[in-house]
Structures are given as C-alpha cells and as structure tokens.
Amino acid sequence: MKTTGQQGGPLLLGIDLGTSRTMVLSNRGARATVRSVVGYPKDIIGVKLMHQSHMIGEDALKRQSYLDIHYPLEDGVLKEANDQAADAAKLLLKHAISLANPQPGDQIYGVLGVPARASMFNKNQLLKITQEVLDLSMVVSEPFMAAYQIDQLNNAIIIDIGAGTTDICAMKGTIPSGDEQVTVLKAGNYIDLVLENLIRENYPTVQMTNNLARKIKEQYAFVGVPKEDVIVNLRVGGKPGSFNLTKEIRTACETIVTEIVENLQSLVMVFDPEDQEEALQNIYLTGGGSSIRGIDNLIAAMMKDYGNVVVRQVPDPDYCGGAGALKLAMELPPQYWEQVGHVSRNVK
C-alpha cells in the first residue's frame, strides 16, 4: 500500500467491495487490495495460535486448516441476511478502511460499488453496515464506476467481469437506469467451479480443491485457440506430476462468454439506431475476468453480425471500479450524492 499525506478535509474513499477481492483507494494516495475473506478460529487452539478473534484476507486463507472461513459476499452482495454475515462484512469493510490509514478525528466518506441490478434490499443491507463505519457513504453501480473512471459516459458499453457477477451497462450520457444494466450470475467463481469439476472428472486421482482451481485459472485463463499447451504441476497421492489442462481451462473460461454476448446483444437495442454504431466501437472490459486471454477478440467475433465491433480492456482493470468510485467522491460535492446513488450517514 502507498500513501501520501494530504491533510485537511474528509478522507475520501473509493471501495470496490468484491466477492473475491476488495479494493480501496483514497484521496491521500492509498491503494490496497484484500481478499474478501474473514476467518474465525474453530476452537480454543485456533484462538491461542492467532492471538486474536478473527483474521482477514490472505492471512485467513493461509490458516484455513484451523479457521472457519467466511466469504461475506456472494454474487456481489451480502451472502446472507443474518447477524454473522453482517458481522463478517463489517469486519472486512473496517479492515479495508484501515488500509487507507485514517487519522484520529478524520471524517471518512466512501463510495462503494454494487452489482448493476442489485436490489433495494441488497443496497439497504450494505448501507446499514456502512453507516456504522463511514461518516457518509453512497452505493452506485459497479460498471458505472468504471465508466466514470475512463470518461466513457455516452455511447459506450461496460462489461465488468468480477468473481460473483458479470455486470453489463449501457452508458447513454445519464445515470444508467435499470433497463440499461444487466447482471449475469456467471463470472470468475463459476469458472472456478466448472474447472474444478472438469479436472476431477478427467483426472480422478488428482487432488483438487476449489481454491487450487481458482489459482490455476488466475495464472492460465484463456479462450479461443490456444497458443501453447497449458501444463500444470498437480499432486496424486501426495506425489507431484505434470498434467495438460489446456482443454479444461479453455472449456471452463468459455462457459461465461455466450451469456455475456446474448445480454450484450440485448443492450445494444437500448441505444437509438443512430448511436448503435458508435456504442459498438466503445465496448470496454473491466474487472478481474477481463484479463482472460482472448476474451476481447472472442466477444467481438461473436458480435460480427453487428458490423464493426471493438472490444478493449480498460487500463488497470483490477482497480478501475475503485478508482472511478474515488473520482466520483472527489468530483461530486456530498450534497449531490443522493442524486447519483443511495446514501447513508453515520449513526455513531
């Protein structure tokens, strides 16, 4: 994490609260990522080993043999509407805020992203938590945050491929309405599950976990014709061995593309006919899934009947949403936040 001291005024945060990772950026230069995971000790031995009541992020994953692991978010929203899920989400959010190095007495204002079609119930659940840890908070659509960051607010389409959801948003020069956004429940986590099952089916003696499948995906994900075979070292009965996973990785990654394209084709229709050509040349991929090799070319190829279609990845896709949220927080005076998103104020 990097910080630079800019004192005076509230600490402004852009927070991309993701199913797999949470990114936070501040107006004082903070830029940090944490795994969206909270671990609680299974028993008293875990408490003794940890010397604390919980652990967050990679530190929790490294100790999962003696921790109960909780992912507070699922499909981009709170996983469950109960006290334990809310407690885990609050701990995760407080930890993310701490990474921005707030100073005693700071007023802290934050803009957070939610899936494009998150329900009012989902947004209110999140705002109930933020009002306990932030002095002022606003939730907005995740793809809108990315569009704001790259200044593509008119005649453009944003495809945000996260862990829990893929959000697609048509930008028409206004705050996108419900009809101009789509949330697809196939994204990174779905690929992990398919890949894990394919490896288990095709190599039944290999020891495989969902976490290991995720790591393989993050290193080798691709769609389309492979440039070379993907050989991965795995273990059978505790012994190492090399396995060709080219077919499994390609198949798993391509499972999300058809639904993305089908929804993209539907969203093209929300643009006026005279604007569709420009919109189809301004399709931007963001989020962790945008790094799947070849996905831009595959989407463009599947849209060939629509004319000249240009699909490109945004710069810095992992942080684009959070950066857009921070940019919005810095450029929009707080008195106007309620005109853009849903807002809550501190109840401390």
Q: How would you characterize the overall build of this protein?
A:
37% of the residues lie in helices and 25% in strands. The protein has 348 residues and is α+β, with helices and mostly antiparallel strands. The chain has a six-stranded mixed sheet with strand order 3-2-1-9-10-18. The protein has a five-stranded mixed sheet with strand order 13-12-11-16-17, with helices on both faces. A hairpin with a 3-residue loop joins strand 1 (11-17) and strand 2 (21-26). The model is unreliable at 1-6 (pLDDT under 50).
| Rg measurement, Å | 21 Å
Helix coverage percent = 25-40%
User: How would you describe the oligomerization state of the chains in this entry?
Assistant: single chain
- SSE-based structural type: alpha+beta
The topology string of helices and strands comes to EEEEHEHEEEHEHEHEEEHHEEHHHEHEHE
Can you list the strand order of the major beta sheet?
A: 3-2-1-9-10-18
Q: Describe the biggest sheet? A: 6 strands, mixed
Percent strand equals 25-35%
Number of helices: 12
The low-pLDDT segments are 1-6
Shape: flat
Count the beta strands.
Answer: 18
* CA(first)-CA(last) distance: 28 Å
Look at the structure and give the mean pLDDT: 90
